[in-house]
Amino acid sequence: MMLLTLAHMLAVLLMPFVLVGLVNRTKSWWAGRKGPRIWQSFYDLRRLLFKRPVVSQVASPLFRVGAYVVLVCGLAAASMAPLLGQFAPLQFSQDFIVVAYTLGLARIMLMISAMDVGSAFEGMGAAREAAFSSYAEPALFLLIGSASAATGMSSFADLIGHLHNTHFYGPIVVPLVLALLILLQTEAARVPVDDPLTHLELTMIHEVMILDHSGPELAAMQYAAGLKMTLYAGLIAALLNPIDPLVAPLPAIGMSLAIMALVALVVGCVESLMARLPMRWVPRYVLLASAAALIAMLVVGMGVSKP
Q1: pLDDT digit string (tens) for 21-59?
Q2: Residue 307 is assigned to a structural domain of this protein
C-alpha cells in the first residue's frame, strides 16, 4: 500500500511535465522538427516561479488567490482519482462526487479570476469555459454511473478497478475510453476543443483566461492544466490496465504509466493531424463524450434488466 501511495504521489507530481513534453515532442516529430526536451515544461515553470508577478490595478486579492485554489483543487482531485487502477490514496464511498465538484470549484475560481481584472476579453473566455463545461460535466457523471451500475461499487477506485471483472467490460470499454479522451481534450484545453498555443481572439478559451497571470500564479495555472491531463489519462489507463495493483503493484504501476504515455502520444498525433474546430462545432464535439457514455450506460442497463 505504501508503494502504491508513493507511486501515485510521484505520478501526480511528475506526469504533468512528462505528458506535456510527450505531446510537444510528438507534434514536433510530425512537423519534422527536433522539438523541445521532454522536461521543458518543468524548466519553464521553474523559471516562472522566480519572476515577480505583475497584477492589474483593478484586480482584487481574489485574482492572485484564484490561481492557487485552482492548483490545490487539481491536486485534491488527483489524490482521489484511481490513476494506477484499483487504488487511490484518498478513497471513500461516493468520492467521485467530491472529485467532480472539486474540479467544478477549480473551474469556477478560474473564471472568477479571469473576470476579476475587468477585461471583456477574459470575460469572453470565461463565458466560453462555462458553456463548454456544461456539456462536459454530464459526460463525466454518465461515465461514472455506467461503471457504478456495472460493478455495484460506490468509490471511484473500486468502480473503475472492478470493471475488468464484469461481463460488461468488453462492450463498454471503447465508448468509455472515447468519452474520457474527449473530456481530456476539453478539460486540459487541447486541440480540437482548444489550443494552448493560440493567440487568436476568435479561438481562445483557456489561454485568454490566464493572460493577466504571471510569475508563480501563471506557473500554478499551467501546472493545473497539466494535472487535468494527467487525471484523465490516468483514468484511461485504469480502464485499460488489466493488472490489479493490489496483487502485482510493480507491473501495474509500469503498465499504467506506459498507457498514460501512450495517451499523450495519441493526443499529440490528434493535434498534429487535425485543426482546431470552429467554435460553433465545439459543443457538438463535446456532446460526443456524453453520447459515448450514454451508450455504455444503455448497454449496462439492458444487461442488468435481463433475467
Answers
A1: 999 999 999 999 988 999 999 999 999 999 999 998 889
A2: no
Give one word for 189, left, alpha or beta, with left for phi > 0 and alpha for psi -120 to 50. Answer: left
Q: Long-range CB contacts (< 8 A, 24+ apart) of 100-107? A: 100/137, 100/140, 100/141, 100/144, 102/73, 102/76, 102/77, 103/73, 103/74, 103/77, 103/187, 103/228, 104/133, 104/137, 105/69, 105/73, 106/69, 106/70, 106/73, 106/74, 106/77, 106/224, 107/133
Q: Identify whether the C-beta of residue 186 lies closer than 8 Å to the C-beta of residue 286.
A: yes
pLDDT at 113: 95
Q: Using one digit for the tens of pLDDT, what is the confidence trace for 264-277?
A: 999 999 999 998 89
Checking if the pLDDT of 1 tops 90, the result is no
Contact 196, 106 (CB under 8 A): no
The SS3 of residue 141 is: helix
Amino acid at 283: P
Q: Is residue 266 part of a domain?
A: yes
Q: What's the pLDDT score for residue 136?
A: 93
Q: Computed from CA positions of residues 85, 86, 92, 97, in that sequence, does the dihedral angle turn out positive or negative?
A: positive
Average pLDDT over every residue of 238-246:
93
**CB within 8 Å of 224: residues ≥ 6 apart:** 70, 71, 73, 74, 106
DSSP helix/strand/coil, 91: coil
Counting the structural domains of the chain, the total is 1
How many beta carbons lie within 10 A of that of residue 258, not counting itself? Answer: 12
Domain that includes residue 28, residue range: 2-302
Cα dihedral sign for 41, 43, 49, 54?
Answer: negative
Phi-psi region at 59: left, alpha or beta (left = phi > 0; alpha = psi -120 to 50): beta
Angle at 107 between CA 148 and CA 111, to 5 degrees: 160
Amino acid identity of residue 68, one-letter, is: Y
Which one, of 10, 14, 21, lies nearest residue 264 by Cα? 21
Helices (H), 31-119: 40-49, 61-80, 95-116
